[in-house]
Amino acid sequence: MGILLCGLNGAGKSTIGRILAERMSWQFIDNEDLYFPKEDASYLFSNPRSKEEVIHLLEEKIEEDDRFVFAAVKGDYGEKLLTKLDYVVLIEVPKETRMERVKTRSARKFGDRIQEQGDFADTENAWFSVVNSRPENFVTEWLERVPCPVIRIDGTAPVEENVDYLLRKL
Description:
The chain is of the alpha/beta class and about 170 residues long.
């Protein structure tokens, strides 16, 4: 049984997904971890893997244990993933809140390095532009092709409340 938590950047997929997986005693897979390998304890940034590499790694993880919670903006990672999904959870959050969360997360991670003169300023500002420019239907259009039930939750609600709700619905 697999569950995909999807939603635009800053929706809370990783936060909710980690807790949900822990409470279910399932493996948690975050697409960020697949794309950006953590090469050492002081990891801050690494070059991303290709989508093909990510799909291969994801398929390996699912083969190891098919009880998983996968967090990704959307689940366009091949047919094998789609066949393993029993539920998709769409986390909906207003754009302003998502942008605030994304910027706060970057500030926590990179500190002064994302300030105007910092060495990550251009990189993070480009990322903020990508996140800001994604249309609200970026995920929902993909959901039309999902062959399993879709559960929608309010990502501004308390995390534990959302996890409890999902545990009742699943």
